[in-house]
Design a protein that fits this description.
With 181 residues, this protein is an all-alpha fold. The protein has 5 helices and no strands. The longest helix has 18 residues. The relative contact order is 0.09.
Length: 181
């Protein structure tokens, strides 16, 4: 069935839905067959820093930490802070010298400056869920950010969901009867 021609659009610019769909399928097929998707390998230093990052994080923070969040944080923090690998090695060396099990065992022995700043940046990242506290920053741990854990039973994490993060399946409370005037 031929579509009626609109008088405000020349016929050479007219695009029916079927023509658009057929063109889109052909274009996507051509792109899919010509383009080869190559996964970018992780930076070797970022991949190596994930276990060290989790080790130093578990010494600095006495909470159960998520390994996936830690791996993403390690990759991000090593790209933002050059030389953090050496800082983590030095922090771990000081902790091992003190036979530290928790942060209080070795944190006072960290020298002021870069090492203490690195330790505080790691602690801050786990508690706030972001590496850099700036508008537009990447969020690594929203629901798992440690600052929400002590009060999670009484405080609602800011969300558009009614019952908190990932709570889109919760049924809405019933509406009360409207008053009659």
């Amino acid at each position: 069935m031929k579509q009626p021609v609109r008088d405000d659009c020349p016929s050479e610019y007219s695009l029916a839905r079927r023509d658009f769909l057929a063109g889109s399928v052909v274009l996507m097929g051509a792109l899919a067959s010509s383009a080869r998707v190559v996964a970018a390998p992780l930076d070797a230093s970022a991949a190596l820093s994930a276990p060290k990052f989790m080790e130093v994080s578990s010494l600095l923070i006495d909470h159960k930490l998520d390994g996936d969040v830690g791996a993403r944080m390690a990759a991000a923090i090593s790209s933002i802070h050059p030389g953090i690998e050496q800082d983590i090695d030095q922090i771990l060396e000081i902790a091992h010298q003190k036979n530290a099990k928790i942060v209080e065992d070795f944190f006072p022995d960290l020298p002021e400056g870069r090492l203490k700043d690195t330790a505080l940046a790691i602690i801050s990242a786990w508690y706030t869920g972001v590496i850099v506290d700036a508008p537009g920053s990447t969020v690594f741990a929203f629901e798992l950010a440690l600052m929400y854990q002590p009060t999670r039973d009484v405080m609602t994490i800011p969300s558009y969901a009614i019952s908190g993060p990932n709570g889109w399946n919760a049924s809405a409370p019933p509406l009360s009867d409207m008053p009659k005037f």
